[in-house]
Design a protein that fits this description.
The chain has 26 helices and 10 strands. The chain is an alpha/beta fold and 601 residues long. The protein has 3 domains: 220 residues, no CATH class; 107 residues, no CATH class; 140 residues, no CATH class. Strand 3 and strand 4 form a beta hairpin. The termini are far apart. The C terminus is likely disordered.
């Protein structure tokens, strides 16, 4: 039975007068949100108007004593609510560091912010209670103690390497960047806090776990609400029907072909419509001008285009959609022979923000006097850029759209080989230095970004392949990759005795410390077939593993990446460090920005 459903501003969910806490049960998975989710939440709050909708949470309310603290068991939405509380903690720390500059009203806000994180009844009663797996709760309490919200509480060992602390530090960095960019320190923080507080969540309360399960089933089986793309389609077809009543079926066919180019994924469809405007903003500004197309203004933009010239709008976005399908590898075109592999690499390294630049170049290909060699060089450069960017976070994700819009502006009046050279110069100017890139490669790269790690390992393996020995390291079967990342020294919480003996001469504590410092390093990672078959086995068992057909699936699988592993009997921290240094040198050459590598083309 659903007890209540309400849309609340965040400030009301964290009501300073209410004795309500949100407890995450121990059976829930540990906190797992990563940088993409932190970034999306922060940017959504900043970029949208007051009241932006952040999603929903589901709670079980079994409270019977109206005078006692009301403890809501959070069964869905724990990642979002934990992240919001860490965001509040980062804002509190920012305001607290400027406490002497606050006026009386702002000091009250600082106190209220504290009460969003702990109850008035007692400073030790935290508002959001993370579950205990992987030290989530202890790490969270340590952050609140660090900023003076609760009493002294020592951070557990290696807390800085875990997600709770990394989330908090990320938000600290974003707030500091925001202050540096905008100035007016206190005013900027207060304006941001106001946006966070006014963002909304739907809170659904149920009476039992059975009711929660029934609700999950009901929500998962319901149809999706109308999307922005649905509304654009309805507006476009209605306008065309009014102009040419007898041709609406024809135009509906054009629209369906467009969606056929883009595929069924709504996120890709929406991204195309945003990127189309951002790529051709200069020529579209006569119809409607906004600084950048976002999710919140997309319908407004296309309403203007449709009202201006619906036929022209459909014709141009359809033509652009066909070219976008080439970028997505959804359509083959002989005119783009040789670019398929770089484009696939760009997709795999999560380079979609650059698609707006590629869309512009493909639409204007003849006018810009571009041939396939130019395009191959550009796409290969973008692959190198995104390997480095996605590992170093330089430039930050929020700047990427404007970066590629700026590059388009810089191409005005240029043609031929001047195009890739100008793009390269712009990319180099805003990218992280080689030293910063190397420092990231030396660190816990898998923990920092497992997607980039997989791409780098595959690229290292592919560079040694010939046409005769080429393997598809991205092959997908049974909802998983056939070739997967393997931690040589295993990452599991319970380190097998054979590994304790090998890396720490039998000392369990030293083995745990070694795992914390070395397990996610590049030198401890490789590629193997279905690595669930390797897991916590001893080094020799991993090295010599075969499948039922007798094929090597361990480190003797024939990949040059594993050549050094196949030839040794033991695995130590010194070997991890040495292999890390060796692979880093190869990576720096492979993804050098100064000269575009064509080896993966």
């Amino acid at each position: 039975m659903i007890k209540s459903v309400n849309n609340y501003p965040i400030s009301q969910l964290f009501d300073i007068e209410a004795d309500v806490v949100f407890a995450i049960p121990r059976y829930q998975r540990e906190y797992s949100w990563g940088k993409n989710q932190w970034e999306n939440l922060f940017d959504d709050v900043v970029e949208n108007n007051l009241g932006y909708f952040l999603g929903s949470i589901i709670c079980i309310n079994q409270s019977t004593d109206a005078l006692a603290v009301q403890k809501l068991e959070l069964v869905d939405g724990q990642q979002r609510l934990t992240t919001l509380s860490l965001l509040f903690a980062a804002v509190y720390r920012a305001l607290k560091s400027h406490e002497s500059e606050l006026d009386d009203e702002q000091r009250v806000e600082l106190i209220n912010l504290k009460r969003k994180l702990v109850l008035k009844k007692g400073d030790e009663q935290i508002r959001v209670i993370p579950q205990i797996q992987n030290n989530n709760q202890n790490d969270y309490r340590a952050i609140l103690a660090e900023i003076g919200i609760i009493g002294e509480c020592d951070a557990p060992a290696y807390a800085g390497n875990r997600k709770i602390f990394r989330t908090y530090r990320y938000f600290q960095g974003r707030i500091n960047e925001m202050i540096d960019d905008l100035g007016h320190r206190i005013g900027t923080i207060m304006e941001f806090l106001d946006k966070v507080s006014h963002a909304s969540l739907v809170k659904i309360e149920v009476a039992s776990h059975a009711d929660a399960y029934t609700l999950f089933e009901s929500l998962n089986n319901r149809g999706m609400p109308l999307t922005a793309i649905d509304l654009i389609k309805n507006k476009l077809l209605a306008r065309l029907e009014a102009i040419e009543p007898g041709k609406v079926d024809q135009y509906f066919g054009h629209w369906n072909r467009l969606l056929g180019y883009l595929g069924d994924d709504y996120a890709i469809q929406e991204r195309f419509f945003r990127q189309y405007y951002n790529a051709f903003k200069d020529e579209l500004k006569a119809v409607h001008q906004v600084p950048v197309a976002t999710r919140s203004n997309l319908i407004q933009i296309y309403e203007k285009f449709i009202n201006h010239d619906a036929k022209d709008c459909l014709q141009k976005i359809s033509a652009a959609g066909r070219l976008y399908s080439l970028i997505l590898s959804r359509n083959q075109d002989d005119a783009l022979n040789g670019i398929e592999k770089p484009l696939k690499d760009l997709e795999r390294i999560q380079g979609a923000p650059s698609y707006l630049l590629l869309l512009y170049l493909l639409v204007r290909k003849d006018e810009l006097q571009l041939d396939n060699d130019h395009l191959t060089a550009i796409v290969s450069l973008l692959v190198c850029f995104f390997v480095r960017r996605n590992l170093t976070d330089t430039p930050p994700t929020r700047d990427l759209t404007r970066l590629f819009m700026t590059i388009i502006d810089k191409l005005n009046g240029l043609a031929g080989s001047a195009i890739p050279q100008t793009i390269r110069n712009q990319i180099i100017a805003i990218s992280a230095s080689d030293d910063v890139f190397q420092r990231k490669l030396e660190g816990p790269i898998y923990e920092e970004n497992s997607g980039v790690t997989r791409f780098i390992l595959c690229a290292l393996a592919e560079q040694a392949m010939t046409k005769e020995t080429r393997l598809d390291l991205w092959r997908f079967e049974h909802k998983q990759f056939v070739w997967t990342i393997e931690h040589i020294f295993p990452q599991g919480e319970n380190i097998p005795p054979s590994w304790v003996a090998m890396v720490a001469t039998g000392d369990q504590q030293k083995a745990k410390e070694a795992q914390q410092t070395h397990v996610h390093k590049l030198g401890n990672l490789t590629i193997s077939g279905f690595n669930s078959a390797l897991g916590n086995k001893s080094f020799v068992e991993k090295r010599d593993r075969t499948d039922r057909q007798g094929r090597a699936v361990g480190y003797k699988n024939g990949l040059k990446l594993n050549e050094d592993l196949a030839a040794v009997q033991t695995w130590s921290l010194a070997q991890i460090d040495a292999r890390t240094n060796k692979l880093i040198e190869q990576v720096k050459v492979l993804f050098k920005l100064q000269e575009v590598s064509h080896e993966r083309a």
